[in-house]
Q: What sequence folds into this?
């Protein structure tokens, strides 16, 4: 535990990526493998299930610190992170625990089924035995969400250095639903067993947004153009008669899409396809909201399956007859994919083939992009003909060129304190539109402002507070922002009657007074 | 009428017709210390502690100013005033106001620890205590500053061994001199940026400091390598800082107790070192005055006043224009 806390402290003490990687690599080299495995798990967002609720943790911490509940809550709102608040408020003592990271987590797992007094006694004792940083790390493990500014990519690179293994190979071995509770460091990373590989997905290759100068630099003839489908990215695996469907968040979602079951029987073992899960409510591509209804449900009933069937829009082939195709050029993978479609075209599988388009001029590509609404896409994907299927987000071969977002001018009505790097700044905003003389909430947005603008808005919020609700402040309506968003759909769950997708701040309209902001009916005119 | 009122110009003593740290231009201003939100430009007459006179003259230029010693009582229109050590920065004071048996104390900014350069804080018994509470939350619990100075010297020595220059940032008045005072000159040479160098020169008349060398256009980068550079926070990421070569950046502030603030500041090494009282310090100061009434001015005023009321004080908040230093404004001075 001590070594891991020291690692976190050291990682916090530098801003240089190379140094962070070196620190991590050094930790992986020197720490016992049972600890290293948990460190890998935590840094790739796998954590033991929470043994106590945060409500109880708050109560106990306030009690130990000798503070009234309200004062503890105020402190928490300002610090913005429960693990850190507790670490700061629990008094330091001199005793020390020598428990390792793996032992600590094992104890937390065992705690889950204990009675409350026993849980309390254990956690209070641990708080007393740990230094401030150890306590922070311990609380982070307890409360989950171990985001400390180390990406999985950095962690994998460090692991590669420490084990002298290829980074991409490791990235693949780290995919899927494993836990230190059911595997060992050696089995997962060094000598993986074939049986464990059956369901394992490949790391997804992610695109960057095409920048303004992209079109001057790149030759259109080197690119395959596709529509960027507006559903849920998925990886479909058929191995030994079994089907595995993975989301981009590495969640196994096979059970949520029972209509895909026939793939397991129809396709040969050793087939892995990359594509988009799309809703087809009336035999044609629906909108993302339809799909959301499917994803949101625990169980998928017959009616839902009938109302919103889904299909898999395939755009890449990663494995064929058990052979890894990722290092083949894109054109060759697509050739193979075309063969596959031809060969199984009579099976009536719930799949579609994402059309590959080719153009002579970027102008023609731009015209195609304008067809996005009728194609029900979000814009275009530009993929280099000879590109391999790389690991993670890499610049150079795959680009997304999304349709211009829809925008509307809205008034800032509420602000909430942020988390992590934005702790104790008001960075999470709620925006309203006019409706019969009132401002009706229509969206929340967090991103789009510069650090300088965030500081300015933060100052505005503090000076123009009308009411406080815990971490949220209602502010005097004064500031107008242009909000951009992707999709828009009618919604009975939203007060405004409209749901927008990916709302973000495009710019601060210093030139506009609140009377000039848009109305709810302006927004509704954008509904398809 | 209360002895001190909070008006649109500043904290006002009507009986004496003087202002304490006013934020708008007035005829007669009593000044607690030299930071720009307390000692503002444009008053006709300034009265402050002797040690603060050269500081505000340096900052404000030609002003009419009278200096007083700590504990020296003087009368204005029959009201008795005196300055008492606040321990915040060199020359900083609390102001005691007495009239017809009633005593009020205005703290300006203060801390309880002895920083080695400012006359340490002395509690002044009073009926009403007007206190800052920049760090008025129980999460702020300062470490012994000696340990922090040790950490800074260790960081410098490690950088020196790696051939890396240490760029340590803090306020030009107070923090930089406190850091300088405790740097170990055996490790290497100490260079300075123009703003803190000028203020340090002003204070050398009062305080012994290790030698410093001002960085100019002529300064050779090789000369600086591995040594210490003291600069205001505004240089972070600037062209000036880039010219220093390979650096490790450090920042000393009470806000560095927050992980979010540390990460936003994006420095390599954050040191939790403040010239303001922490939670326990504020409570200790209030208790030692034996006051009945507390008025909180800048910082976490509402929360702190609510806590004090819970503990039996008659506490309230008043609005001032002292910039409640926040994790953000701490960057700009």
A:
């Amino acid at each position: 535990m001590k070594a891991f806390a020291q690692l976190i402290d050291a990682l916090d003490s530098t801003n240089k990526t190379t140094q962070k990687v070196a620190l991590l690599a050094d930790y992986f080299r020197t720490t016992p493998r049972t600890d290293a495995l948990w460190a890998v798990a935590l840094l790739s967002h796998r954590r033991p299930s929470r043994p106590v609720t945060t409500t109880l943790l708050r109560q106990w911490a306030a009690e130990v610190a000798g503070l009234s509940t309200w004062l503890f809550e105020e402190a928490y709102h300002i610090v913005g992170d429960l693990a850190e608040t507790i670490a700061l408020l629990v008094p330091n003592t001199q005793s020390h625990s020598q428990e390792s990271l793996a032992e600590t987590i094992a104890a937390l797992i065992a705690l889950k089924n204990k009675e409350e007094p026993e849980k309390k006694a254990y956690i209070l004792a641990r708080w007393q035995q740990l230094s401030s940083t150890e306590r922070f790390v311990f609380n982070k493990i307890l409360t989950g969400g171990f985001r400390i500014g180390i990406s999985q990519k950095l962690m994998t690179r460090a692991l590669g250095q420490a084990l002298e293994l290829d980074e991409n190979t490791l990235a693949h071995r780290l995919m899927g639903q494993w836990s230190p509770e059911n595997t060992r460091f050696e089995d997962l990373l060094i000598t993986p067993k074939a049986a464990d590989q059956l369901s394992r997905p490949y790391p997804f290759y992610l695109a960057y947004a095409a920048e303004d100068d992209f079109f001057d630099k790149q030759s259109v003839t080197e690119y395959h153009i596709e529509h960027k489908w507006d559903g849920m990215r998925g990886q479909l695996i058929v191995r030994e008669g079994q089907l595995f469907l993975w989301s981009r968040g590495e969640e196994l979602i096979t059970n949520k899409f029972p209509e895909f079951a026939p793939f397991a029987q129809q396709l040969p073992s050793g087939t892995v396809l990359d594509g988009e899960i799309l809703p087809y409510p009336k035999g044609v591509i629906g909108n993302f909201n339809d799909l959301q209804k499917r994803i949101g449900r625990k169980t998928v009933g017959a009616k839902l399956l009938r109302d919103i069937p889904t299909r898999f829009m395939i755009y890449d082939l990663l494995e064929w007859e058990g052979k890894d195709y990722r290092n083949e050029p894109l054109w060759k993978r697509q050739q193979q994919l075309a063969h596959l479609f031809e060969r199984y075209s009579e099976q009536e599988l719930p799949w579609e083939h994402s059309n590959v388009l080719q153009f002579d001029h970027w102008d023609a590509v731009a015209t195609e992009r304008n067809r996005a609404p009728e194609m029900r896409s979000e814009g275009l994907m530009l993929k280099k003909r000879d590109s391999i299927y790389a690991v993670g987000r890499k610049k150079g071969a795959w680009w997304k060129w999304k349709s211009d977002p829809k925008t509307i001018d809205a008034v800032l009505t509420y602000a909430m304190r942020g988390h992590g790097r934005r702790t104790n700044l008001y960075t999470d905003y709620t925006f309203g539109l006019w409706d019969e003389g009132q401002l009706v909430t229509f969206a929340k947005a967090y991103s789009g402002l510069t650090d300088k603008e965030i500081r300015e808005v933060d100052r505005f919020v503090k000076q123009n507070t009308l009411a406080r609700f815990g971490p949220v402040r209602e502010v005097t309506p004064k500031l107008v922002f242009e909000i951009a968003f992707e999709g828009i759909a009618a919604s009975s769950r939203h007060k405004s009657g409209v749901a927008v997708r990916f709302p973000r701040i495009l710019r601060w309209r210093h030139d506009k007074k609140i009377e000039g902001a848009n109305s709810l009916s302006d927004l509704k005119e954008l509904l398809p | 009428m209360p002895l001190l009122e909070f008006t649109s110009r500043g904290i006002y003593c009507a009986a004496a017709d003087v202002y304490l740290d006013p934020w708008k231009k007035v005829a007669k201003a009593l000044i607690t210390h030299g930071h720009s939100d307390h000692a503002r430009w444009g008053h006709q007459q300034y009265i402050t502690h002797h040690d603060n006179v050269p500081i505000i003259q340096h900052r404000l230029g030609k002003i009419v100013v009278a200096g007083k010693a700590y504990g020296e009582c003087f009368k204005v229109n029959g009201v008795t005033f005196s300055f008492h050590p606040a321990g915040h920065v060199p020359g900083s004071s609390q102001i005691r106001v007495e009239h017809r048996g009633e005593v009020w104390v205005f703290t300006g900014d203060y801390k309880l620890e002895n920083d080695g350069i400012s006359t340490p804080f002395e509690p002044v018994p009073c009926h009403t205590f007007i206190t800052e509470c920049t760090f008025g939350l129980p999460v702020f619990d300062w470490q012994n500053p000696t340990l922090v100075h040790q950490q800074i010297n260790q960081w410098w020595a490690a950088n020196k061994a790696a051939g890396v220059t240490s760029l340590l940032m803090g306020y030009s008045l107070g923090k930089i001199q406190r850091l300088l005072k405790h740097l170990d000159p055996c490790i290497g040479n100490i260079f300075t940026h123009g703003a803190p160098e000028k203020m340090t020169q002003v204070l050398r008349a009062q305080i012994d400091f290790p030698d410093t060398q001002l960085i100019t256009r002529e300064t050779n980068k090789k000369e600086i390598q591995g040594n210490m550079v003291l600069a205001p926070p505004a240089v972070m990421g600037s062209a000036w800082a880039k010219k220093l070569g390979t650096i490790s950046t450090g920042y000393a502030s009470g806000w560095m107790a927050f992980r979010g603030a540390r990460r936003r500041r994006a420095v390599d090494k954050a040191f939790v070192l403040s010239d303001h009282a922490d939670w326990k310090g504020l409570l200790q100061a209030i208790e030692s005055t034996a006051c009945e009434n507390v008025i909180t001015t800048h910082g976490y005023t509402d929360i702190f006043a609510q806590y004090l009321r819970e503990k039996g004080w008659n506490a309230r908040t008043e609005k001032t224009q002292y910039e409640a230093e926040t994790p953000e404004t701490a960057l700009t001075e």
Q: What stands out?
A: Residues 328-333 of chain B have pLDDT under 50 and may be disordered. Chain B has two domains: 5-140+275-331, 145-271.
